[in-house]
Sequence to fold (388 residues):
Amino acid sequence: MGVEVVVEGLTKSFGQQRIWQDVTLTLPAGEVSVMLGPSGTGKTVFLKSLIGLIKPERGRVLINGVDMVSSSERRINEIRKMFGIMFQDGALFGSLNLFENVAFPLREHTRKKEHEIRRIVLEKMEMVGLAGAEGKLPGEISGGMRKRAGLARALVLDPEIILCDEPDSGLDPVRTAYLSQLLIDLNAQIDATMLIVTHNIDIAAKVPDNMGMLFRRNLVMFGPREVLLTSEEPVVAQFLHGRRRGPIGMSEEKDAATLAAEAAAPLADDEDDEPFKIPRQLRPSPGMPPRRAAARRRERVLAMLHTLPPQAQHAILESLNAEAAHQPHQPVPAPAGAPAAQPAQPSVPPQAPQAPQIVPPPGGHAPPPGPRLLPPEGPAGPPAGGPR
Fold:
């Protein structure tokens, strides 16, 4: 199973340029999380901070009790072995074929024999749909295949935490859909904690268990996917709908006068104010084991339900009921080489032959709304820029 990643008060600047400040969140063990944000909000910097490649000025990143910000390099290097990283461009060596690219971490960081390396590499390449392509060079294959080769390389050391930096960049919508399903299938097979950095709404809305968003040097919010997808926060709504109207501008955040003028103007023909329609979260492909993270998430989210906004509570209950209706009655056998998985159990047992229902507490009403998970900060200073 993956491990929990706890981020506390993380702050990073480059010179006088503040990238983000006081970022606090927890990536639950084994679950899939997504970090959204406009270009220039420091999403990639955040990923590199988690693994200790960039040192924030303040805050902690705790993994198995080790702080990736302030611990010794020896301890940080030990924890880094738990990570697998899928880089934005695949980061493949152009002169090496795919087999050699995927085998590289094994040869650099282990003393495995060649027959063991071959077995592992072929297994991981098959997991990402690249069986038979071992001899191809990166320049001979499509962008989607390069992404999958990069993912296979991230998997060869059996990571407990997988970081994906904009895995959809450069891919068409069809390949993005295949990649989204692949990420869910991998989570079902290896139960690793996953964090995906993206600005692709299709991936963000369909893949993760949890979502967060960076904007104006702050973490706007982080929590169950339904909280962000039902949020009425202007920057979140603008980003989800891809609207021009809202705090995000072409190259920087809009000032107060521009926002006031927009609010007073009627909607344009291509704009709407309808709530974002939440799509169904992707499920593992037929033949894959159930996602063990789904059962753990169900218990965790139900425990915090009363603290969430009413619209998020409603969306979560709908989502959990839909998931309960699709629970298999018999465990699905795991594919060869994958760890055995226990079938997820419904949180609320069925009270009739139909699918089990997860309902609000007695009284017929959802619990009273509690505080937002992470409310946005007040007015920010000058616009953020710098590294993505």
The domain at 5-229 is CATH 3.40.50.300 (Rossmann fold). The chain is about 35% helix and 15% strand.
